[in-house]
Design goal:
Bound molecules: pyridoxal-5'-phosphate
Strand content: 25-35%
Number of strands: 21
CATH architecture of the largest domain: Alpha-Beta Barrel
CATH superfamily of the largest domain: Alanine racemase
CATH class of the largest domain: Alpha Beta
Helix content: 25-40%
Largest sheet: 9 strands, mixed
Number of domains: 2
Structural class: alpha/beta
């Protein structure tokens, strides 16, 4: 459920007409709903009521400070994958004791900051990484609390670009080496083993892969304990899907039941890293129609948003429902149209043959479910300014990231002096 609904013939974000925000901020822009963010966080965390669980929001899904802070105020922890995200989480008020640090390529200076502030756990993804972490921690006189991310070799049955738990993927340590790797790491100075971590992919629409992975992790915890390791933390990652095209994913409650069934009596703290599930349906990308063009075979709607603003369709074949801001009348005629952006790439296509009501220049549309992996993946390709972000709360809104000016973008470049003369 979200808080983007038609009222009096136009699309609202909570109590505000989106057209009003568009008139003031300009298009394209991302629009997030506080009530939806809060609701999703609560529904997820309530699936673990009475369970020793830590919900670490995966910051990479949407790392705006205002979004993180909205979740921090509800008690969320954070899963971060870079020093930049760690700084965002801390600045948004998430205590270090609720932060886990994931990612296959952590650098020594990133580890240093995480050790300095005392994060809850490093999710270590390789043997070379644990050696570097051991060196950094020893030099600082600190102890790094770690889990190894293990690769359970299960098929998450999701898009290849967001599947992470197969043996062929770059993530985690190989299943058959886990026992030896834990044994070796236990001997390293500055390292304290406390857990096991797994994350098999994103936008999962089926509980079976989770169940398979979690049951394997359960066996692993028992094996590692029998080998003398003190396992108190099990991080089950993120990845639960959201309904982009109307297909319903499993509910957080049924997902929680699978996790609790697998881990229930192990006496560990469970960690979860939901990203998309929290922010995906809490955001829309609002865009204006520039032209409607009749091609040789198809009709094209050319928008002022493009693949550089929302790359999911180009990168993951992602589907986004498109709503017109004006509510279509009961007798509106729909016709199939290709919805595209102005970027000079054929891949700059949001939808093909999508049935939409008749549109004309300056009409507004909203891409639904754009709150996750939207703004964070935006670029300035074609020298298009990064798309601004707006947060709505009831009948008020704030610009939480402004649109950079073209001057600011051009100022980032430097022309070397040898090109100056003549
Ligand atoms: C991306 C990622 C997540 C979040 O995944 P969602 O599908 O957005 O829930 C969680 N943990 C790790 C390690 C990730 O890489």
């Amino acid at each position: 459920m979200d808080h983007f609904n038609y009222k009096d013939g136009e699309l609202y974000a909570e109590d505000l007409p989106i057209a009003k925000i568009a008139a003031e901020v300009g298009t394209p822009f991302y629009c997030y709903s506080t009530a939806t963010l809060e609701r999703h966080y609560k529904v997820f965390s309530e699936a673990f009521d009475g369970v020793n669980a830590l919900v670490c929001y995966a910051v990479k899904a949407n790392s705006n400070l205002a979004v993180i802070k909205t979740l921090a105020r509800l008690g969320a922890g954070a899963d971060v994958v870079s020093e930049g995200e760690l700084r965002r989480a801390l600045q948004a008020g998430i205590p270090a004791s609720k932060i886990v640090f994931s990612g296959v390529g952590k650098r020594p200076w990133e580890m240093e900051l995480a050790l300095e502030v005392g994060i809850h756990q490093f999710n270590v993804e390789s043997e070379p990484e644990v050696k570097v972490l051991s060196n950094v921690a020893s030099r600082m006189g600190k102890i790094a609390k770690i889990a190894f991310r293990v690769n359970p070799d299960v098929d998450a049955k999701t898009h290849a670009k967001i599947s992470t738990g197969k043996a062929e993927n770059k993530f985690g340590v190989p299943w058959q080496d886990v026992s030896r790797i834990y044994g070796d790491a236990a001997k390293l100075p500055g390292i304290e083993i406390q857990g096991v971590d797994v994350h098999i992919g994103s936008q999962l629409m089926d509980l079976d892969p989770f169940n398979n992975a979690f049951l394997r992790v359960r066996e692993l915890v028992m094996l590692l304990r029998s080998e003398g390791h003190n396992i108190t933390q099990v991080d089950l990652g993120g990845g639960l899907g959201i309904p982009y095209d109307g297909t319903m994913p499993p509910t957080p409650t049924s997902y929680g039941a699978v996790a609790i069934n697998a881990m229930g009596n192990l006496g560990v703290q469970l960690i979860f890293e939901p990203g998309r599930l929290i922010v995906g349906n809490a955001g829309v990308l609002v865009s204006e129609v520039i032209y409607v063009k009749q091609g040789a075979e198809r009709k094209f709607v050319i928008l002022d948003a493009a693949m550089n603003d929302l790359i999911r369709p180009a990168m993951y074949d992602g589907y986004h429902h498109i709503d017109t801001i004006k509510e279509p009348s009961a007798d509106a005629v729909f016709e199939p149209m290709d919805v595209v952006g102005p970027v000079c790439e054929t891949g700059d296509t949001f939808a093909k043959a999508r049935d939409l009501p008749l549109l004309e220049a300056s009409d507004l549309v909203a891409f639904r479910s754009a709150g996750a992996y939207g703004a964070v993946m935006a670029s300035t390709y074609n020298t298009r300014p990064l798309v601004p972000e707006v947060l709505v709360n009831g009948d008020q809104y704030a610009v939480i990231r402004k649109r950079p000016s073209l001057e600011e973008i051009l100022d980032l470049d430097t022309v070397p002096t040898w090109l100056d003369n003549e």
